[in-house]
Design a protein that fits this description.
Blueprint lengths: L1 E2 L15 E2 L5 E8 L4 E7 L4 E6 L4 E6 L4 E7 L4 E7 L4 E6 L4 E6 L4 E7 L4 E7 L4 E6 L4 E6 L5 E6 L4 E7 L4 E6 L4 E6 L5 E6 L4 E7 L4 E6 L4 E6 L4 E7 L4 E6 L5 E6 L4 E6 L5 E6 L4 E6 L6 E5 L4 E7 L25 E3 L6 E3 L17
Parallel strand pairs: 1-2
Antiparallel strand pairs: 2-3, 3-30, 4-5, 5-6, 6-7, 8-9, 9-10, 10-11, 12-13, 13-14, 14-15, 16-17, 17-18, 18-19, 20-21, 21-22, 22-23, 24-25, 25-26, 26-27, 28-29, 29-30, 31-32
C-alpha cells in the first residue's frame, strides 16, 4: 500500500490497489483507464460490474469491480452521455446524445437488445423502480421522455425547457423534476399525470439533481454558478445555496442520506456535503474533469467518471460525521497576475496573432468544453 499526500506521485500509478492520504479522511482504491470522455456511470451490484458511458468512444466500458479491469466495450449510438441500470430486468440504459436514442443492453450477456428513439440530444436519464419507468431529458428537444421499463414503450413526451437533462424523482411525493442547463431552471411534474405543477429558476448551468425524500429536499447542481441549491420540494423554493469546488457537474446522494457527493470538474475533486448542515465536510481528489458519480451499494465505495483523465476513480469516504474544522478551498494562485502571453488564430483573417497585437482592442476568446 502506497501512502502519499500527492495525487500525481509516480509511486501511485493508474491501477494501483490502494492509497491513503495522511492529511485527509479518504482512501483511493483504484483508478481505471476506460474509453474517451467517460461521463455517466452505473453499478451492477448483482454481477459486481460498473457500466461507464464513454461519450467520445461511442461505447460503454464494462469494469469488473473485483479485479478493477475492463472486461468489455459495448458499441452504442453516437456520444453516450448518461447511463442507468434496472436490476429487475437486468437492462442497462445508455442515453446516446448524437443519435437521439437510448441504447438498451442486457447486463448478463453484455449484448445490445435494441435502441429506442427519444427527443433531440438526450443527455440525462434516471430509472425509477417504484414506478417501473425510465425518464430521459432531451436537451435540444426541450422535452422529457417517459419510457415503461418492462414494455420499453414511450408512455409520454413532456414539454420541458432548453437544455433539459438530469431528472430527479421523489416516489414519496410522486414528483418528477427535470433540470434545464440552458434555461437555468427546473420543471416540476405530477409523476402520474405528467402535468407541470411548478417551475423554479436556479443558478446558471443547472445540470444534476439528487433527492432526499424523507427531508422533502432536492440538491441541484449549478455548474457555471459553482453552487448546489437546496430546494424545498413542498414549497418549490430554494432555501440555501451551497458553494463547492470549481465547476460542479455531477451529484449523488449517499445511501444513508446524510451526505451528498458532488464532482467538481474544474477542481478535479469530489466534495462531501452534509445534508443536514449544508457544509462542505471535505474534498476528495479524483481524476481530471470528473463528472458522473455513483455509490457502490455493497461497500459504499464511490465511483467517479473522469472525462479529462479517460478513467474512473474508486474512492472511499472515511468520515463518520462532519469534521471539526470546515474545508477552506485556497484561492487560485493566478488571481491578480497579468494575462500571460499567448498566440491564437484570428477567426476572421486566419492570421496567427499574439495578445500584444490585440492590446487595447475588444476581442472574444471562445473556450469549448466537450461536456
Amino acid at each position: 500500500m502506497a501512502v502519499t499526500g500527492e495525487r500525481d506521485d509516480p509511486a501511485f500509478p493508474v491501477g494501483a490497489a490502494c492509497r491513503i492520504d495522511s492529511r485527509s479522511p479518504w482512501r483511493e482504491i483504484a483508478e481505471i483507464a476506460v474509453g474517451l470522455d467517460p461521463e455517466g456511470i452505473a453499478v451492477d451490484n448483482l454481477r459486481r460490474r460498473a457500466f461507464v458511458a464513454c461519450s467520445r468512444s461511442d461505447f460503454v466500458s464494462v469494469v469488473d469491480l473485483e479485479s478493477h479491469e475492463v472486461i468489455a466495450e459495448i458499441a452504442t449510438g453516437a456520444e453516450p452521455i448518461d447511463i442507468g441500470l434496472d436490476e429487475e430486468t437486468g437492462r442497462v440504459f445508455s442515453a446516446d446524445a448524437h443519435s437521439d436514442q437510448v441504447t438498451i443492453i442486457d447486463s448478463a450477456t453484455l449484448e445490445v437488445e435494441t435502441a429506442l428513439p427519444v427527443g433531440g440530444y438526450p443527455s440525462g436519464l434516471t430509472h425509477v423502480p417504484e414506478f417501473r419507468r425510465l425518464y430521459v431529458g432531451n436537451s435540444l428537444g426541450s422535452t422529457m421522455s417517459v419510457i415503461d421499463l418492462d414494455t420499453l414503450e414511450t408512455v409520454a413526451t413532456v414539454d420541458a425547457e432548453p437544455g433539459a437533462g438530469a431528472i430527479g424523482v421523489d416516489p414519496t411525493r410522486r414528483l418528477a423534476i427535470c433540470v434545464n442547463f440552458v434555461a437555468a431552471s427546473a420543471n416540476f411534474y405530477d409523476a402520474d399525470s405528467f402535468e407541470e405543477i411548478g417551475r423554479l429558476e436556479l443558478g446558471t448551468g443547472t445540470c444534476a439533481i439528487g433527492i432526499v425524500p424523507e427531508r422533502g429536499e432536492a440538491f441541484i447542481v449549478n455548474s457555471i454558478a459553482g453552487t448546489v441549491s437546496r430546494v424545498d420540494l413542498d414549497a418549490i423554493e430554494v432555501v440555501e445555496e451551497i458553494r463547492t469546488g470549481q465547476a460542479p457537474v455531477g451529484l449523488t446522494v449517499a445511501p444513508a442520506h446524510d451526505r451528498v457527493y458532488v464532482t467538481n470538474r474544474g477542481a478535479g475533486s469530489l466534495s462531501v456535503l452534509g445534508v443536514a448542515d449544508g457544509a462542505e465536510w471535505s474534498q476528495i481528489p479524483v481524476g481530471h474533469g470528473p463528472g458522473g458519480v455513483v455509490v457502490d451499494p455493497r461497500n459504499g465505495q464511490i465511483l467517479v467518471a473522469n472525462a479529462g483523465s479517460q478513467t474512473i476513480s474508486i474512492v472511499e469516504d472515511l468520515l463518520a460525521a462532519r469534521p471539526p474544522a470546515p474545508v477552506v478551498e485556497p484561492p487560485s494562485p493566478f488571481i491578480g497576475d497579468q494575462l500571460p502571453p499567448f498566440a491564437l488564430e484570428d477567426y476572421w483573417t486566419g492570421e496567427r496573432k499574439t495578445n500584444r497585437d490585440w492590446a487595447e482592442k475588444k476581442y472574444i476568446l471562445n473556450f469549448f468544453a466537450s461536456w
